[in-house]
Amino acid sequence: MARLPDSAHALHNREVWNRQSDEYQTTHGPQLAASGGLAWGVWQLPEAELEILDDVREKDVLELGCGAAQWSIALHGLGARVTGLDFSERQLEHARRLMAEAGADFPLVHGNAEATPFPAESFDVVFCDYGAMTFCDPYLTIPEAARILRPGGLLAFSALTPILELTWPVGDEHPGRELVVDYWELHRHEEPGEAIDFQLRYGEWIRLFVANGFAVESLIEPRPPVDAQSSYRHGADLEWARRWPMEHIWRVRRIVAP
Predict the structure, then answer these.
(1) What's the pLDDT at 4?
(2) What is the pTM of this model?
(3) What's the structural domain count of the chain?
(4) Helix ranges restricted to H, 115-154
(5) 3-state class of 246 per DSSP?
(6) Helices 8-34, 89-102: crossing angle, 10 deg rounding
(7) Which H or E run includes 59?
(8) Which of 89, 153, 210, 233 could potentially form a cystine with 237 if both were Cys, beta carbons 3.0 to 4.6 Å apart?
């Protein structure tokens, strides 16, 4: 498969993540370490409770946008054959450091989730916790995930919800309680100096999954506990997330060839 040129937004996001990686790991690394790498989203809700990935032992697992590979290291410890992919060289440097500290050994690939270097039908599970499915265009990543998954393979990823996006005014640090964004225009969001991120309408997510041979198994809307804490979000955001879904996790299964 010929490799496509990297998109302008991918190159922009690589520059942003290379610049912000050290600060990100300093700020959020301790919370990710405290959860042992096996927890979802900004509130770090345990995989043991949500059961998103099933049993990963002896499965070929790809983390899209692995960052410092906290998830991949943990899954490697559970017996998965893990590969971590990220487009930020600096994030992969952090991943190599944490892998060395953990005594873990698995492939780390510098690459773009919109056009990966892997052969077709390489993996049993493709997943990310935010990561590439937030910072890459889903019109490119969903077909690519379908290509590299084996028949019956699982695609699972977490992200902010469209509901949250609709209430978050441009330039503000926190979501509000009124609809301020046009639902029909959801796709690409950018602010100066920050990474470009992506979101779709619920119906468009489902249409895109089905068009690429996926069946939707579940859409989990985890509600954080009343005492949840996060290095990512302010206390007022917890009150918001207790009332409305702030994050969701898609589980979709490849049932036919893309």
Answers:
(1) 62
(2) 0.95
(3) 1
(4) 132-135, 138-148
(5) coil
(6) 30
(7) none
(8) 233
- Residue 5 has what pLDDT? 73
Among 98, 112, 41, 23, which Cα is nearest to 68's? 98
Confidence band (pLDDT; 50, 70, 90) for 173?
Answer: confident
CA distances from residue 39 to 47, 48, 99 in whole angstroms, order as listed: 5, 8, 18
Domain with 148 in it:
8-254
* pLDDT for the residue numbered 258: 64
Q: What is the residue-averaged pLDDT of the chain?
A: 95
Whichever domain contains 49, its CATH number is 3.40.50.150
Return the SS3 of 127: strand
| Tokens encoding 72 | 């991949």
Residue 2 counted as domain residue: no
Residues whose CB is less than 8 angstroms from the CB of residue 124 and which lie 6 or more positions away in sequence, other chains included: 59, 60, 61, 149, 150, 152, 153, 154
The pLDDT confidence band at residue 1, using thresholds 50, 70 and 90, is very low
Sign for the CA dihedral angle at 24, 26, 32, 37 comes to positive
pLDDT in tens, 228-250: 999 999 889 999 999 999 999 99
Where does residue 192 fall: left (phi above 0), alpha (psi -120 to 50 degrees), or beta otherwise? beta
CA–CA separation, 166 and 188 (whole Å):
13
